[in-house]
Design brief:
The complex is a heterodimer of chains A (about 190) and B (about 130). Chain A has about 190 residues and is an alpha+beta fold. Helix content of chain A is about 45%, strand content about 25%. Chain A has a five-stranded antiparallel sheet. Chain A is globular. Chain B is about 35% helix and about 30% strand. Chain B has a six-stranded mixed sheet with strand order 1-2-3-4-5-6, with helices on one face. In chain B, helix 1 packs parallel to helix 2. The longest helix of chain B has 17 residues. Chains A and B meet through helix 2, helix 3 and helix 6 of A and helix 2 and helix 3 of B.
């Protein structure tokens, strides 16, 4: 990247209100370190008000989801990475915060994830809260879940607009892997 | 039964279970990678303690700044254990300490108070 391109990149990041951007391996120590940086930035923005707590919560759930569920560990050059890999941007634009994340998933999981996310998107705020409370109080365990299976619902609970998502097959993987984008707005 | 103290880490709460004084406290952050692995031994110690405690006032102080979804699920089960312990003649006082500005944590506290009516629930505002 030459200086001119970097200059353009910086400008773009400023225009998009990016507070925090990360692209790389994800693990609990990395998430913990990022969470401290993010909280510091959010507190400067907005002395720990309601919105920044929800941004923090959505961020942690999204990152831990990637560590728990990312498949393929695709690093983009055909080599398998030793750890979950993902990227995330947190920013503030038009008086709303956004958290956008990306990670690799097995294409065989796309349909299931899609229907799960569609179902949450179709819910009203009250329905999301009710479903969250119901799931919290049942022992039902999604066989594909390693956590409490509450990640997407928690993100949806913390947002002020429906969650957005996109799946995109990764070329050169023989349709084995797809890229999964998720966006939360607070 | 020995008291249990675990120092806080950046993603794990401070655990201060003074069983000898019937005063149990959790404070800080809770978003460990594996909530079951972290809370499993604590839940086991609590079960032991509650199993041998009768006709006692037990004070539980919760002052968590943030907890993730898997911690939330386990905490709910912990409060269910305290609720059940009340049937052995114990009185469990739950001091739910949070910033009233934090609707998520304040609401979860209200839900606990509504779900487990035997707990003597106090919402305590922290700054």
């Amino acid at each position: 990247m030459n200086i001119e391109i970097f200059r353009g990149y910086r400008q773009f990041v400023t225009e998009q209100g990016v507070l925090f951007y990360y692209d790389g391996y994800l693990s609990q120590p990395i998430i913990t370190a990022m969470s401290e940086t993010l909280r510091g930035k959010l507190e400067i923005e907005d002395r720990a008000n309601r919105a920044t707590r929800k941004v923090f919560s959505a961020f942690i759930e999204m990152m831990q989801n990637i560590v728990h569920y990312a498949d393929g560990r695709w690093v983009g050059d055909n080599s398998a990475a030793p750890a979950p890999y993902g990227n995330v941007a947190v920013g503030r634009k038009n008086d709303r915060y956004y958290i956008v994340s990306g990670n690799t998933v097995a294409t065989s999981h796309v349909e299931r994830l899609q229907s799960k996310l569609e179902a949450i998107r179709a819910m009203t705020v009250e329905e999301i809260k009710a479903e969250y409370k119901r799931k919290l109080r049942t022992d039902e365990q999604d066989e594909n879940s390693k956590g409490a299976g509450l990640g997407f619902l928690t993100v949806a609970r913390d947002t002020s607009a429906p969650i957005e998502f996109l799946f995109e097959p990764i070329t050169g993987t023989g349709n084995a892997l797809s890229f999964f984008y998720l966006k939360a707005t607070v | 039964m020995d008291d249990l103290f675990i120092a806080a880490e950046r993603d794990k709460p401070e655990v201060d279970f003074k069983f000898s004084q019937h005063h149990l406290r959790l404070s800080g952050e809770s978003f460990p990678e594996n909530a079951m692995a972290f809370y499993g031994p604590l839940v086991a110690a609590l079960m032991d303690y509650l199993g041998q405690t009768k006709d006692t006032n037990i004070t539980v102080d919760i002052e968590l700044r943030y907890f993730n979804s898997s911690s939330t699920k386990i905490l709910l089960n912990v409060f269910r254990m305290f609720d059940q312990a009340s049937t052995s003649g114990n009185t469990v006082i739950l001091n739910w300490r949070c910033d009233p500005e934090d609707d998520t944590i304040a609401e979860f506290g209200n839900d606990i108070a509504n779900d487990f009516i035997t707990l003597k629930y106090n919402a305590v505002a922290t700054v």
